[in-house]
């Protein structure tokens, strides 16, 4: 009888222990989601350690202060016969409550200052990348030692519109996936120069422990040394317009040898792209390239069906611009339209891309102007700085 009762007690204890373990594990998982992540870089780990140091200092202060409050409430309550002390001042007490917080602040400020100095030390870099914000995409320029661009590309949201409109199930990296990720080598110091072409954006990669505003006309600096290969995701963290939530940041850290091979391929492709500017494209080539450019750069405002969202984003299907003179059509694509949401794409796209998207808009949907636009037509209309 006793053995049966003992076995029952053991079973109950095991079940309760398992339940408690699950609760504690669940609590730790929630804490990991809510707390700052340590990240992978030296800076991110320093920031995390600083965050936890200050957190526990605040916890200790809370325990002492609230402990003193509750102890006083219980042990000095009126019902226990205590009477309030009558005094006007206490020099020792005033010195104490001034000196102790000052020492606590110094204890927090010293490591914080060291971390900030380290974060802003961008010297001794192995390579430099310019990060330029646009509504609503990022442009990455790989700069040489003289800060001249060797090649560049845009990084756009790659989450399908079907997921955004809830027509299909959302993927694992919903709104955190791009068509072209920024690629950097591991174990090299990469300096990032941040600016913006239109409004204020903010470039943030939590696993690197870095975030900085991208402001028009101003260059801000960041740096990172990533020790581990992998894909690291972030977002624009400055409200920048209707598609602010559609500006993910994706960085792929690659082993050094693999990165060097990729970099050489990109430099070669950039040279070939320059040679293509003198080429005469067929109508089929222009339509294929133009559709890709339109879906990447234009469809978020003018819609994939060309109907737009009037009156803010006018439709292009049957519009006077898309079916009118080629020069006027090119002008608004190259230079934009002041006072409207229409951006200037003269510095975002090369002449071949502008020619292709112009041709596409003039022959897509119900439009059929019957003409052709070539890169040389675009070059003739662009200003020298474009």
Concise summary:
Helices cover 45% and strands 16% of the residues. By secondary structure, the protein is α+β, with helices and mostly antiparallel strands.
Question: How would you describe this structure to a colleague?
Answer:
- The chain has about 375 residues and is α+β, with helices and mostly antiparallel strands.
- Helix content is about 45%, strand content about 15%.
- The strands form two sheets. The protein has a five-stranded mixed β-sheet with strand order 3-2-1-5-8. A five-stranded mixed β-sheet has the order 4-10-9-6-7, covered by helices on one side.
- Helix 2 (about 40-75) runs antiparallel to helix 3, helix 6 (about 285-295) crosses helix 10 and helix 10 packs across helix 11.
- The protein is elongated and about 100 Å long.
